[in-house]
Design a protein that fits this description.
The protein has 17 helices and five strands. It is mainly alpha-helical. The chain has three domains: 135 residues, no CATH class; 110 residues, Cytochrome Bc1 Complex, Chain D, domain 2 (Orthogonal Bundle), CATH 1.10.760; 112 residues, Orthogonal Bundle (Cytochrome Bc1 Complex, Chain D, domain 2). The protein has a three-stranded antiparallel sheet, with no helix packed on it. A two-stranded antiparallel ribbon has the order 4-5. Strand 4 and strand 5 form a beta hairpin. Helix 1 crosses helix 5. The protein starts with a helix and ends in a 5-residue tail after the last helix.
């Protein structure tokens, strides 16, 4: 017969083990949430491939980069890494052996992630099924295939360090800044990229073309583009979480972010991001843009475009451009229609698209493609019309611009 002390000790050990397992599971659950916030799955999962096994081809102006395997496979993934190794990669942009990581991984943003959150993400990645899939070598042109060049890039554009809260701002604002500037790495698309593949902190969130994707990430600081200073917090929250709001809808790369990441965040975090993003907005409604198209030609485009619009667009977006939000976004007074770059509205007319299917918008209404229906002249005319009608102040576009995007890759 077992003595009472032995029985008590057994219960204590069992209780401690159960508590440890609960703590481990809580850490994994937290890490899964944070990995969602960082949209890790978008780059590290190839369509049709194993989750987080890498191999996704990412075209850049310097060649093609392939994402790495971050499953816990000990040979081809990160199964041999420690939590210290993982934090070092996130924080410094270097492999555990000291090797330099190409900045296609947004370590410039991930360096802001706290050690506590890094450990949670690592615990989650350790819990996913291991996939034995060797990493594919990058296919970069000379001299960009020389990793030592990254040292120069890092000197110019990388600033290591965890996020430091702004004591003059609220806890909610700081949480939003941490998510947007850190895990969310939003500046990676919404900041102009220079010829060296870097960006200046002084131009953060000022918008720019996304290399090789043929989409324009609008400025989040200027209300002339997508600055949210004039939006309500509720409208921003709806757009982030559901992909649609009374103001408009997200398409293209941003739709993927909403689908993979933002729709899974809790109410407090989405609101915190909205508070921070709204604080970035400034400026006034769009002013008249300078156009290289002669005034007489612009007038003809407007007249022709109105006819095309009445035939193909008015049934959804209404003759007065007010649409039927949130299903059919308004075009009148819509900053995304009037941005300096007309890439996005031209792409939408040519290729159509859907907002993401989310829990809050499970059956989104889509925009049909008109590439097979409209000529380059008709596309240029109707985009010119929607950018200038109803007191909109966008500049005209040419048939050449329409043709360039018609023949460009869709991704």
């Amino acid at each position: 017969m077992l003595s009472l002390p032995i029985l008590v000790a057994g219960w204590l050990v069992a209780g401690l083990s159960a508590a440890a397992r609960a703590d481990d599971q809580a850490l994994v659950t937290k890490g899964e949430y944070l990995a969602r916030a960082g949209d890790c799955i978008a780059c590290h999962t190839n369509p049709g491939g194993a989750r987080f096994a890498g191999g996704l081809a990412m075209a850049t102006p310097f060649g093609t980069i392939y994402s790495s395997n971050i499953t816990p496979d000990p040979k081809t993934g990160i199964g041999s890494w420690t939590a210290d190794d993982f934090y070092g990669v996130m924080h410094t942009g270097r492999f555990p052996d000291g090797g330099l990581i190409y900045p296609a991984m947004p370590f410039g943003s991930y360096t802001k992630v706290t050690r506590e959150d890094s450990d949670a993400i690592f615990a989650y990645l350790r819990s996913v099924p291991p996939a034995h899939q060797p990493n594919r070598p990058h296919d970069l042109r000379f001299p960009f295939n020389n990793r030592q060049l990254i040292l120069g890039w890092r000197t110019l554009f990388f600033h290591e360090g965890e996020y430091q809260p702004d004591p003059t701002k609220s806890a909610e604002w700081n949480r939003g800044a941490y998510l947007v500037d850190g895990l969310g790495h939003c500046a990676m698309c919404h900041t102009p990229i220079n010829a060296l593949g870097g960006s200046s902190e002084s131009q953060a969130f000022e918008g720019g073309l996304i290399p090789m994707q043929n989409w324009y990430a609008p400025s989040l600081t200027s209300n002339k583009e997508a600055g949210l200073g004039e939006w309500s917090i509720e409208e921003i929250v709806d757009l982030l979480r559901n992909g649609v709001s009374q103001r408009g809808a997200v398409y293209g790369p941003m739709a993927e972010v909403t689908f993979n990441s933002l729709q899974y965040l809790n109410d407090a975090d989405v609101r915190a991001m909205a508070v921070y993003l709204k604080s970035l907005g400034q400026g006034s409604p769009p002013g008249a843009e300078v156009s290289g198209i002669p005034a007489s030609e612009s007038s003809l485009l407007m007249n022709f475009g109105q006819t095309v619009y009445a035939t193909h667009c008015a049934s959804c977006h209404a003759t007065d451009g007010r649409g039927m939000p949130p299903d059919y976004p308004p075009l009148a007074s819509n900053p995304s229609i009037q941005m300096q770059s007309a890439v996005n509205p031209i792409r939408m007319v040519l290729n159509g698209g859907f907002p993401p299917g989310t829990a809050g918008n499970s059956m989104p209404y889509g925009m049909p493609p008109f590439a097979q229906t409209l000529s380059d002249d008709e596309v240029a005319a109707v985009v010119t019309y929607i950018r200038a009608a109803w007191a909109n102040r966008g500049s005209p576009v040419s048939s050449r611009q329409a043709n360039e995007l018609r023949t460009a890759p869709l991704d």
